[in-house]
Amino acid sequence: MSASVRLGIVGGAGWLGGAIAGAALAAGAVRAEHLTLSYRRTRPERFSGAFWTADNQVLADRCDVILLSVRPQDWPSLEVDAKGKLVISVMAGIRLAAIGEKHATSRVVRSLPNAAAEVANSYTPWIASGDATEADRAITRAIFDACGVQDEVGSERDIDYLTGLTGSGPAFPALLAHVMMRDAIAFGLPPDVARRAVNTVLTGAGQLLEARDASPAETVQTFLDYRGTTAAAIETMREAGFEQAVANGLAAAFRKSLAMGNT
């Protein structure tokens, strides 16, 4: 992707849209003077040199690539004529065909980054429409490489599944952290100690898995084989239904993604 490409982010004032903008700027995937962002109410004071507008059609007319970062429930009321340009969606559930039809283009990418784009550590699966060019794919890779790691997947069904697995991003580890921290505080630890302990455990675990490139199952089995305190905790959590609860949650997210695409 050339940094001269003019990128517009509808919803650039939001958490995810802003995170993608910041990551793309930091990586040099786009220059500030070629970045246009839209907002709904108050213009943010960030991204010096970028162009801000409350008019989404003005954004579309200024740009080569239009990234839609709005809530799926707000998308039906979004009036943007993309006139055959590349449109990249980061909305859960909304299908390629529907995006293309609504925005007058056959060059569409459906993607699902997560909030960790804010720290350039998102996992982003994506799929392109049949009329998307190799240049369109290169642009998509450049944007989401800036946000972390990206994969072009084989089907929209894969995107729907990954909506729960990775699109939820930090939410699942954050839920685990919340439960662990609450238990530590109930035990009597000071909240600041509990927070540092839990956050360090989770960030360290992620870095360890990445550095060792081992399967999570192997890591779990290593602790089970040691037959210590960790094994006791893992076995008790499994008996309480931890694994089934996670599977049920992912299935619910998959069903929700399918339902959102049918509304």
Structural class: alpha/beta
* Helix segment tally: 10
The fraction of residues in strands falls at: 5-15%
Number of extended strands? 8
CATH class bucket of the largest domain: Alpha Beta
Total tally of structural domains: 2
Radius of gyration: 21 Å
CATH topology title of the largest domain = Rossmann fold
Largest sheet: 8 strands, mixed
Topology:
Elements (H helix, E strand, L loop, with lengths): L6 E4 L4 H13 L7 E4 L12 E3 L2 H7 L2 E4 L17 E4 L6 H8 L4 E4 L10 E7 L5 H14 E5 L3 H12 L3 H17 L3 H22 L3 H11 L2 H11 L2 H20 L2
Parallel strand pairs: 1-2, 1-4, 2-3, 4-5, 5-6, 7-8
Antiparallel strand pairs: 6-7
Helix pairs in contact: 1-4, 5-10, 6-7, 8-9
Structural summary, described in words:
The protein is of the alpha/beta class. It folds into 2 domains: 7-162, NAD(P)-binding Rossmann-like Domain (Rossmann fold); 171-261, ProC C-terminal domain-like (ProC C-terminal domain-like fold, Orthogonal Bundle). The protein is 51% helix and 13% strand. The protein is built from 10 helices and 8 strands. Strands 3-2-1-4-5-6-7-8 form an 8-stranded mixed β-sheet, with helices on both faces. The chain is elongated and about 60 Å long.
